[in-house]
Amino acid sequence: MSRKSFTGMLVIAAASATALAACGQAGQSDGSGDGGGGDGGTTELTMWTHSAGNPAELEVYEQIISDFNESQDEYEVVMESFPQGAYNDAVVAGAAAGDLPCLLDMDGPIVPNWAWAGYIQPLGLDTAITDALLPTAVGRYQDEIYSAGYWDAALSVFARQSVLEENGIRVPTVDEPWTRDEFDAALVTLQGAGYATPLDIGAEDTGEWWPYAYSPMLQSAGGDLIDRDSFLTADGALNGPEAVEFFEWFQSLFERGLASDAGTIGNEEFNNDEVALSYTGVWNAMGSLDAVGDDLLILPPPDFGEGPKIGGASWQWGISADCSAADGAREYLEFSFQPEYIAQFADRQVVIPATAEAEELSEMFGEGDPLQPFVELSQEFALERPPTPAYPVISSVFERAAKDIMNGADVQSTLDQAVTEIDTNIESNDGYGF
């Protein structure tokens, strides 16, 4: 399973807001299949999801939809699923054609862009629901809630307790994580102990994995992808002294052979004891538990100076801007956030349940369960990617710059060029509403 399975692949949405003419909501149906109106008929709520190819996720949606449709006679939810790789393109095309469904899911970081572009409307769910969710499971633009999700994902450093003990390496904790110097020294020690490349950092992956995985390290070091006070520039955040120092260290990992981009996507190198440490996500945890058993440690990420950080926000649900049955869409979403459904999503997909009640109902994430450490990591360290419509551009620019640095490019000039590209995009779009 790919490291990016639960973070998604972003595409750049349209550069200006689109006037949406219709939402794919089929109006009143008399049950004859012609879509016509009739007394006593139900309103069809069309729903798009990126989950084609993920039967475990689709099975839960099918159960929710069946339960909701049977629970009342005013609305009927009809789902259409798309392959994840084609999904965002389908939404952008649907928006341009005025043919979006009422209900659609979206990767958390794309929410501000789609809100700014006019694809989706403020969510308007009962605040008792959104207040109970993990903060990173709620999507916002300009302090307005536009989406909400049933789960999140979290990153960790996987290790074998026996390997750390044999090499005299301290086991870090949430309260006392490794410092950067400790982490670096541990990697050097493990390389000397026979691990040719001691750290699998996932650099062979592409796309959204790069900002999801590595920008939290940058933020832990005191840098960022953008100035979060104004959201109008990346200058000083992405190319300041803290960012330069971090990326010089990042580059050195590859120069010294402590990390590599020659591995395979997933966690097989760690499971096979070919690497000592793996920077990976909750979605790979069950495979590593099967391979390593009780020797597996699920560790916090290092503290690069400003406290550990990990990426947050996964797939969430929203309502299209011109959905003519928005009240029905909200009724369905409120129905869907029942704890038992959230717990099913968590256990079947190996993702973190977004509410405490669902956490306790789950088989893997409750108190004392094997994957409970991920809940603590998410609660303590998760940081959303910048909630700005510029994020798709930021994501793409960051990936290219970080890869260039990995391959030996000059750090300062590479980051300066990335800032220029990001700031030019923001200026050309009049600040994206900020």
From TrEMBL:
Keyword NADP in record: no
Database matches in Gene3D superfamilies: Periplasmic binding protein-like II
Compositionally biased residues, Gly residues: 30-41
InterPro entries per record: Bact_solute-bd_prot1 (IPR050490), SBP (IPR006059)
Signal peptide coordinates: 1-21
Protein origin, superkingdom: Bacteria
Name of this chain's protein: Sugar-binding protein
Gene source species: Cellulomonas carbonis T26
